[in-house]
Design brief:
Length: 932
Amino acid sequence: MSAIQPLESIAIVGLGGRFPGARNPAELWRNLCAGVESIRTFTDEELLGSGIDPALIADPAYVRARSVLDNPEMFDAGFFGVTPRDAELTDPQHRVFLECAWHAFEDAGLDPSRFRGSVGVFAGASMPTYLLANIGSDPETLARFVREFQADGYALLTGNDKDYLATKLSYKLDLRGPSITLQTACSTSLVAVCQAVSALLTYQCDAALAGAVSITFPQARGHLYQEGAIASGDGHCRPFDAEATGTVFGSGCALVVLKRLSDALEEGDRIYAVIKGAAINNDGAGKVSYTAPGVDGQAEAIALAHALAGVTADTIGYVEAHGTATPLGDPIEVAALTQAFRATTELNGFCKLGSVKSNLGHLEAAAGVTGLIKTALALHHGQIPPTLHFKTPNPRIDFANSPFSVVTELTPWPAGAAPRRAGVSSFGVGGTNAHVVLEEAPLPETTSTAPSLQLFPLSARNVAALETSAAQLAAHFREHPEVSAASAAATLQLGRRAFDHRRIVAATSTVEAADLLERRDTRRVFTQSERSARPAIVFMFPGQGAQYAGMGGELSRAEPVFREALDQCAEIFRAHTGEDLAAAMRDATRLTQTEFAQPALFAVGYALAQLWKSWGIQPAAMIGHSVGEYVAAVLAEVMTLEDAVRLVAGRAKIVQKLPPGGMLAVRLPETEAAALANGRLSVAAANGPKLTVVSGPEAALAEAERSLDDRGIAARRLCTSHAFHSGMMEPAVAPFTALVSAVRLQAPKIPFVSNVTGRWITDSEATDPHYWAAHLRQTVRFSAGIMELLKEPGRTFLEVGPGNGLSQLARQHGPVSAMASLEEDGEHRSALTALGRLWLAGAPVDWTALHPGRAPRRVSLPGYPFERQRFWIEPRPAKKEAPASAAQHGLNGGAMPGPAGSAEELILHQLQVMAHQLETLRAGAGALQSQP
């Protein structure tokens, strides 16, 4: 055989499953570390409730032990779009597999609906005993199914037959990669992993779900013990121990999500462990019988996995064995392991050995990946859990002259100079052997630990599930305060499906997020009980008066896109004026001067718009207030950014040279405010039904203020140095017209509403220099503009600039959804909260933009809280028959065990039969010799 070149490694990025005594892999790991045995011993009542014959229960050879899965009859049918009747007709194996697959993808931070690649499924299941024991307990139902097989009865067929396990999942989750159900008995799930590895390496898919489920009914049942057979005599599974008498079967589901390592690293996935090599083979005919295990076949599979991984056996520190605890099977397995290891090392006792079956029993089709999950977590946490019940080695195992020793207590597995490695074995009746070599995950790149504000989005299909999700997340953050806020936020943003009922919270740590979620602070936690259709978002750009010293500073430090756009505007401004706009924005005095205030407002509005666009928020329409309309013009491509900055700077400089004046906001309709002005003041802005701004000389404004005060009418001075949109602007019209005439203007590509008319701007207006000159002088018809926008329902108004003035104005026109995005008290928080609120309303958000560069690594967070209901067809009581004796069950007479026997059981039986035949032949030969 030619030398094998190591292939690319495969990353385990997600875990899923339900196990005896554990609802998920995290609970499984805690149980394993604590040495918990999850094999149940049943009472008479439980066994009788399962329909077990009382005579069988009373048999001294009956072992009333098995590991079970809690509530497999419960299922969230509505979540997966399954009708109640179809749910009843579906094997719980298929249902549990579907739910566990969803949670595995969530654990991987992989939302299949947004994944840029194909996802494959490689899966298996045990015999559909629900069909046989429950649905088929009605003879007519079973007879009709058989009669209609392949021609009808598809709900029953596709819901129970193994053939449809993988493809049903691919249909439900819209997965487009290879979808293959496979079956190799006890090695099924680890063989599924090997096949998934192959598909990833040959680019048949870009992510893969691999594993199996085994739930057989009735769950509460035991077995008749036969010495030397596969089933345990005392209800415990004791791998490698001298007192081992066999295994205990049980139910479970185990799944992993896999990716090519290079992709996982590039995409910021959390990696539990890395698969370096995976091999499968079959024993062929070189063994005692079809059901017997073969030392050579197992050894060859293990050695091949080592070769594919490019490792030598002396670098492997732990092996998760098949470990069924049968007196003959365990020695065969250790002999095969030793044979494979001896190909590259003569060292003894350096490799730890264990078997998860000591905790859970044998989960049949799901056993291999259960061991894989245990081993991946051992590498991830740097600990090897104990193998239970091991006291004295099986005398048929020569541990002293092997590389192995059994782990009997929780053992630290510290990282060293060389990567930690492990092997996982799984062998099936019929001789299909699988072995996988694992390696610890590469160290993640170091990232800044400085706290930063993060947005945590949650969603669910209904209000109750949303409340449960929020409570689970808060509890998880309380239990794991070490979880990075950035990683948790990225996991929720990028790796979870978005449903209609939503909640968001912005926080700098997971502890703060937990506190806010628990307190339900309505100023910081926002909820939308039902998402509407995708909103049409209106960008609103404020004008002079909204500025404050230092505006944009905090957001610049937090958001590179905003900072770069702001710097770009400042550089253009410097090129035309020689002034430092950034310095002026930090100076409260200079920021009151028109020549700096207007360019600063334009720059902040433009930079904020670029940030919103980078986050995936695109305007359907726009409206600006006074100078804010220039930002709308740039986004609509009426003018270039450089031309706009030059115009705004020129406009401000022209106005700065005019005589000073002032502006006064009054609580009056436009008509009454115009009467108040009495020719000495101008109506500068009609902002709302009862909110108008008048503008003019200082003396006239002071007189108006006194009059309003006498009448008890509220009025407020605006922070401006001049009387904008008044007759005092008239001298600026001609020079500004000339300035605009030198600029190339184009028809708008995004619609926006004109301040001058209060209607949609026309192409002719947008490209006319006289329009922009009149814009400087005429009344700002913001109120009319909002009413024009509200003619189309479903609009959401976003204030793209400092303050919340325009949002308040918009709300005066009715039940309008309007929000600010740059408030002085917490700029970054206000921006992120506004983004979250838009997401609540159904706006598409590009979450990747919140993590420039490489996104933080995903972390494990609580999965979706399925709202399960009972879907179950009760089995009909069986007809009473005479109880079978132990001898009839083949317990005492050496009769051939039934087809349920394992490889270990059957090989031992074969040896017993051969010994019996040999004794018979010897006796016959002696008798012949004694005859005369």
